[in-house]
Amino acid sequence: MDTKIQINSLRLKRDFDVLSAIGADEFGGVDRPTFSAAHLAVREWFRQRILQDGLEFSLDGAGNHSAILRSRQAQAKTLLLGSHLDSVPHGGRYDGALGVLAALEVLRTIQEANLSLPVHLEAIDFTDEEGTLYGLLGSAALAGLLEPEALLAPRGGRAALLEGLQRAGLSEEGFYQARREPDSLAGYLELHIEQGPCLEQAGVQIGVVTTIVRITSYRLTFLGRADHAGTTPMLDRLDAAQGACAFTLQARQMVLERFSSCVVNVGEMHFSPGAFNIVPGSASLALEFRAPDETTFASLEASLMELAQSAAENYGLKLEREFLGRHHPTPMHETAQQAIQRAAGSSGLSWLSLPSGAGHDAQSLAQICPAGMIFVPSVEGASHSGREYTHWEDCVNGANVLLQAALSLAAV
Ligand code: GLV
Ligand code: MN
Ligand code: MN
After folding, report:
1. Does the pLDDT of residue 2 top 60, yes or no?
2. Where in the chain are the domains?
3. For 202, how many CA atoms within 13 A lie in the half-sphere containing its CB?
C-alpha cells in the first residue's frame, strides 16, 4: 500500500473557509448550536459537498450526516472518521469542523488515489456533540448508548429538544434506530484541535489521546423567598442569590485545594423573579464537573453536593438538585493509539501522548469499537470562543496523520 499519498490542503482550506462563514459571528467564531438555522445550513452544505465529490450520502435516524466510500468487498466492515459541525453558542471555527472536513478530505484523497481498501470508509458529522440539547447525542445513539429515559430530561431541556427535532425533521424513535452493530465497525478515528495549551507549550505537532474525562451535569436550584429589596432588613432575607454565589466561589476553591486533576464550572445562573428591586426568590445554576477517573469523580461529586447543601443552609435556603447526564471516562484503544503514533512518526512529525479534558464523540464510539483521537495544537489553548485558532500547517499535519492512521487501521 502506498503510504505516501497526502491530502489536498488547498481543497481542504477552501472548504474550511466556506464552512467558517456559515453561522459566522461578530466575535470571529461561529454560532451553530444544534438544530439552529446555521447548524441546519451547515449540514445542508455538507450534504451537497458530499454529492459534488461523487461520494455516497447517508443520513441516519439520529440526524448523523455521512459520506461513504465503499470497499469493493460488499461485506466489509466500516471504518468511521468524523467529528461534529454543531458549535457551542458563539464557539470557535475549528472545534469539530476540522475533524469532519479532514475526514471528508481523507475519503476524497483515497478515492482519487484509487486505493482499494478492505473496509468501507465513512466520514461522519455527529448530531449535538456539544450538548446544547443533550451532549454526544448522535454518537451515543449510533453506539446504542441512549437509555429510554435519556431524552426525557436532557440538559438543554425537553422542550428545546422536541422543538429542535421537529425543525430538523427527526423523531425520538429515529435515535434508537440509529444504533449500529459493533461487529459492523472496524474502528473510529477523530481529528480535533487540542482546546488546551499542552501541545503548544511543549512545541509538539501531534497529540495522541490516551483517555477522555468523565463529565457530569446538574442543575442546582437554591430556593428562598422573594421580598421587597428596599424594605426587608438584610438579616431577614432568604436571598437565593447568596447561596448560589457562595456555592460557586467555594466550589472553585475546593477543587483548587483538593481535586487538582479535576475542573468545575458554573456556566449559567438565573435569578427569579429577576428585577432590581426584588430579593431573588430562587437562583438556579448550570453545574458541570469533570474528573479523570471514576474514583476521583465519586469523591468530587459527593463533596460538591455537600458544599451546595451547606451553602443553602447557611442562608436559610432549600436546595433542589436535578441530575442532567454524564459521560464516562474513556480510554482510547491501544491499536488506534499505535496507528496514530506510527502515522505521526513516519510523517516526520513530533508527537506526545496526552489525556483530553474535553468531551468527544470518540467517547461514545470507544464503547463499541477501537477508537482513537489525534490532537493538533490550539494557539494559547483557546477554545469555545472566537479566539480559537490553529495554524493551518498544523491542521494539514493532523489531516495527513488521520489519513495515514486510517490506512494503517484499514489494513489491520
Ligand atoms: C465539548 O466540547 C465539551 O468538552 O464540552
Ligand atoms: Mn469538539
Ligand atoms: Mn466543543
Report:
1. no
2. 9-212+331-410, 214-327
3. 16
* Cα–ligand 1 centroid distance for 114 (angstroms): 36
Q: What is the CATH number of domain 214-327?
A: 3.30.70.360
Residue 360 CA to ligand 2 centre (angstroms)? 6
Number of neighbours of residue 342 by Cβ within 10 angstroms: 16
Nearest to 376 by CA among 195, 109, 187, 130: 195
Mean pLDDT of the chain: 96
Query: Which amino acids bring their CB within 6 angstroms of ligand 1?
Result: 130, 358-359
The residue to which cell 489553548 is assigned: 381
Residue whose C-alpha is closest to residue 100's, from 69, 119, 115, 122: 122
Q: For 50-82, what is each residue's pLDDT tens digit?
A: 999 999 999 999 999 999 999 999 999 999 999
CB 27 within 8 A of CB 92: no
Question: 229-233 — which CB contacts under 8 Å span 24+ positions?
Answer: 229/276, 229/277, 229/278, 229/279, 230/277, 232/279
Residue 3 pLDDT exceeds 80: no
Q: Where are the beta strands (DSSP E) in 260-331?
A: 263-272, 278-279, 282-291, 318-327, 330-331
* Cell numbers found for residue 24: 459566522
Please give the share of the chain, as a percent, with pLDDT higher than 70: 99
Residue pair 326/215 in contact (Cβ under 8 Å)? The answer is yes
The CATH number of 9-212+331-410 is 3.40.630.10
Cα-to-chain-centroid distance, residue 184: 24
pLDDT at 223 over 70: yes
Q: Are 304 and 166 in contact (CB under 8 A)?
A: no
Q: Which H helix or E strand runs over 311?
A: helix 294-314
Q: What is the pTM of this model?
A: 0.93
- Note the ligand closest to the C-alpha atom of 385: 3
Ligand 3 centroid vs 342 CA: distance in angstroms? 27
How far CA 248 is from CA of 237, 267, 268, in Å, comes to: 20, 10, 11
